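Narrative of activities, Objective 1.

The group set out to show that a structural description can be obtained from nothing but a protein's sequence at a throughput compatible with the screening campaign. Below is one input-output pair from the validation batch, recorded exactly as produced.
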Amino acid sequence: MNLILRIAIIAVLGSIAQTYLPWWSTVVVALLVEAFVGKADNTSFFSGFYGMAIPWMALAAYIDVKSESILTVRILELFKLPQFSFVLIIVTGLIGGLVGGVGSMTGGWIKAAFSRTDGERN
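Output recorded for this entry:
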């Protein structure tokens, strides 16, 4: 399946899952999407990374705008980071991307493990 389509599926299903389930449900969503509709190639990490980084960054930006950056500035002060809201939005996207990427990569490995022919197994 196309990389862009897998990113969109992971983004939509992961966002829906996070609405009703804990944050780590994105790992399960990315794993299942990649295991069932992925290609088991080198793009599996990137589909999960972008599929979760984009929604997490969008949600962080939305919360930042709605709260007028009050919470963002306090968190940045706590961690002694530069006082720019986009820094925390990018860090949030990187964390979400890594979570989704690891789940998706694991799903790709599972698919690769079960899709080998008998001649390739030892």
